[in-house]
Amino acid sequence: WLLGAVRALHAHPDFPGRVLAVFQPAEEIGRGARSVVAAGVLEKYKPLEIYGAHASPVFPKGQIGIQAGPVQASCDFFYITLKGRGAHAARPHTTLDPIPTAALLSESLQTIVSRKVNPIEHAVLSICAVQAGNLRAPNVIPNELQLSGTIRTFNPEVRALIETEMRRMTEHIALAQGLGHEVRIDHLTPPLINSPVCADAAKRVAQRLFGPGCPQPVSMSMAGEDFAEYANRIPGIQTYIGMADETHQAAIHNPKFDFNDEILPLAVCFLSEIARSRLTELTH
Question: Alpha-carbon distance 73 to 123, whole Å?
Fold first, then answer.
């Protein structure tokens, strides 16, 4: 995907600014934008606004999705280790079995969203992996068990609440069963909140270039997006370039996904016109 950023300069009367293009690596793991920010790009070039274009099979080819406000959730990954004492399965009384403890913990963690978070807030806590023991050793109780999963929300206070409750529940459930524990939470990306000013500017360009039926509204998603690292620091918006046609139907993050190369000229035209129009508007 492409990012266009504009910086107002007054060095030349006929060209009031410059365009900074960021071809960002490592978007898939949620750390690319953070690396770009850490490299000092925003401080060096001092962009006034930033615009992103992400391919999307949700919209048909030739359509663009634009939405102001909350669009994509924050993304955190968690890793929990329960440390017990293994032994032969015929002597369970000599063990500190992490498996039933993990079952208790899994059920309890699901109550955080249903009973701790205000129902009007958006939040997800999903346990996505459980690893313990050896399938080829069905008579051995393992020493430890690992859980991993993800947390998604739009509210920083809810994000903090979920982490606090996760740590508290893990500690006390493990303690009640006589187990040790470790909790690691990796904070990947903040929520993506698109700037209303940038959204209006992008909408005007989309309508001018592609007609009154464009753009389309974008539904809120609990998926994470590291463009938020930029939009949390300067006004910005991520737009979504439709790519769906008869031969491009697979969703992103799918092994059958096939990028539709035909949308590249549309995306370049769209971002170029945003940069040209906003440079003019911001410097006059």
Answer: 9
